[in-house]
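Fig. S4 source data, part A: sequence.
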Amino acid sequence: MSNLGAYQEIVTAAARMGGVENMIRTIESGAVAKAAPALLGKGAGIGALVTLAAGGVYFGGRRLWSMYEARADAAEGAKEQLRAVLDVDGQEHPDYPSGGVDERTPDTDAGEA
């Protein structure tokens, strides 16, 4: 008697597989086997992107740090050069007799608070 259509086919297949639970397990394992390669590919792609991003952050950070150090070294060199110009053996520099303050032009733009 096959007047139930697709339902009858499912019931018959479940009976051949040893019950409904066995049929569900078989369907699940087949679905996992089909999905696993795609999931593995996605995982590998995501892993590669994360690795590239981490490498970019690392090398970008190193570059920024080296730029910072170069600027700090240049600033320190400029400070030493300024000290040398303003203080020659503890004496005033001949071009700047007042210790580096240029008194030729008064500061007329300064407002009082």
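Fig. S4 source data, part B ends here. The helical segments are 6-16, 20-86.
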